[in-house]
Every structure is written in C-alpha cells, then in structure tokens.
Specification:
With about 130 residues, the protein is of the alpha+beta class. The protein has one domain: RutC-like (60s Ribosomal Protein L30, Chain: A, 2-Layer Sandwich). α1 runs parallel beside α3. The longest helix is centred in the middle third of the chain and has 18 residues. It is globular.
Length: about 130
C-alpha cells in the first residue's frame, strides 16, 4: 500500500493534517463511527472539559482501530465534530499532539455543530483508516 500526501499549500502543517491523501494498493478500509468520551457502558464522561473529552474519544478511536488490527498511522481521514469551535481552537496546541504523537497525519475537517447525541458531549471523532 502506498499513501501520498497532497498539500498544495503548507498552512495545515501546524495542525499535523494534510489537504488530502492519495491511497493506492490498500487491501482493507475501515470506516469508524463517531467516537466520543463515553465509558465502556456508554456513560458520557468529562462534562465541560473539551480536552479530556478529546483524549477519551481518541482513546476510544484507538481501541476501535486495534480491534481491526490497525493503528493511528492508518487513519487517512478524521472528521472532528465539536459543539464549541472557539474552545477547540483555543486548545489546539494541546489537542494536536494527542494524535500527532501516534503517527496520525490525516486529511481532516473540523465541524461546528449545535449538539451531539448526549448534551454534555463536546467532541466526536469520525475516522477512515486503510491498510
């Protein structure tokens, strides 16, 4: 499998993301549902703490990847849904290393939404991985 980063400009480098990723020769594609800061029993955790919610959502995403014998470096697309874009951008220096240190440099979209499926949730991470 080959992955080629597509970056006509370099301004997204500060967020450790790409404008696009071309994949050739992949044998498996994993489409992950949105991962949130929910415990194994479904209870939402870390109300009001966007960074803690992101960390747990990322951990849940890593668990889903591992269940498919994949790793964060296999993620080519990451959609981030948040109920507070301003808070997300204020914390971006703390959030980017969470996925960057795991080898994840995806094409990425940040979307502001009114709410998620549980009112206290502030972050949802939806990913596509290839291997």
């Amino acid at each position: 499998m080959q992955k080629r980063e597509i970056n006509p400009t370099d301004w997204l480098e500060g967020f450790n993301i790409n404008h696009g990723i071309e994949v050739t020769g992949a044998k498996r594609v994993l489409y992950l549902s949105g991962q949130t800061s929910n415990a194994a029993d479904g209870a939402p955790l870390h109300a009001g703490d966007l960074v803690a919610q992101f960390k747990l959502a990322w951990s849940n995403l890593e668990d889903a990847l591992a269940a498919a014998d994949m790793a964060p470096s296999d993620v080519v697309r990451l959609n981030i849904y948040t109920t507070d874009v301003d808070a997300f951008m204020a914390a971006v220096d703390e959030l980017v290393p969470i996925y960057a240190e795991e080898g994840c440099k995806p094409a990425c979209t940040l979307l502001g939404v009114d709410r998620l499926f549980e009112p206290e949730l502030m972050i949802e991470l939806e990913a596509t991985a290839v291997a």
